[in-house]
Amino acid sequence: MTILGNLFLGIAALVSILLFNLIYGHHNRSGDAGVGYAWSMLIGLLAFVVCMGIVAISIGVKGGYAWIGTNGAMRTVWVLGGFTLSMLGVFILYTGEGMGGLPRFLYQIVKAAPLLAILSVLLSALLLLNEPLRANLPTFVWRLPTFIAVGFGVVALGLILSAKARNNAAISKAAIESRDNFLQGQLNHVDTTDVMKDMVFLLVYTDANQKKTLREKALAKIKSRPDWQEELVRRLQNDWAPEAFTFLASNEVDDKAMFVEPIRQGVLIQARLVRENIRQCRDKYDLYEGKFTWEVDRVLRTVDKFQGMGTDYRPAVQELRKALDEPVSFEKPKLTAKTILDKWLEKH
Length: 348
Fold this sequence. Notes:
Structural class: mainly alpha
Number of helices: 15
Number of domains: 2
Shape: elongated
Helix content: over 70%
Distance between the termini: 87 Å
Strand content: under 5%
Largest sheet: none
Order of helices and strands: HHHHHHHHHHHHHHH
């Protein structure tokens, strides 16, 4: 086994020379040449790992791991862990994974790591496989290359984890900035909207699920218009009724009496809009299970706030429910909005 192990150790050494040339030589790493470079590196690393695996088995057969652990089971665990870490170190350091974003001075230091990692692996294997070579060496000296090889694996793993942490932090920061920019864009839109002409475009920002700062700004802008309630009533009586329901579902009005009948009319308009929308659907991607849930929820929340004020909203809500039964030319999904309306009608 010693001869076989040394044979594959020699092959691994030759492969390492190729790897040295690939990583430290001047090679074109763009275009087709870059693809060839990547494949050469990958094949070289795999060949090195296979050779060292055979060498590791040879060392085990010769009893080269007798100094590791206290029993056979623990020794196997430590050897497998050490081999995996050392090979992982070679692989990661040679492919450059996890090195992006490192400070320049640290990157220059790490650039030398692939050479040192592979040399420590080769030297460790040479000493563990050939007992005569280590016979006259202090114990610490012939064990040191093994510790260094495993140490490079730990460092490489640390680089990967560090890079992942930096990447996650960058993604999180970008997401927060994106949300902040989007919110600021909405706030700017509220500021620049002419409430006397385009109040209807601010109603969507008054829903209860909006950010507090955005919602409060939109409400203040809307209520700065003297006839904002009259404008809401007018919108309930045309195709902007869904936007009016968005406001009314989440906010109070000063004169509830003026909204009682317009709300009934608005529900009927919403029913018509639902029918028209369904007729335009061509497949299940247009008419999906959750479609109209938002509209129905806002309508029912509004109706519930104005119950008992002299108008029976049940017939209008029934019409909205019937609208969801509008036939289509494809298999119709089970709409959640139907279930919501059925439950409401059962209670009323």
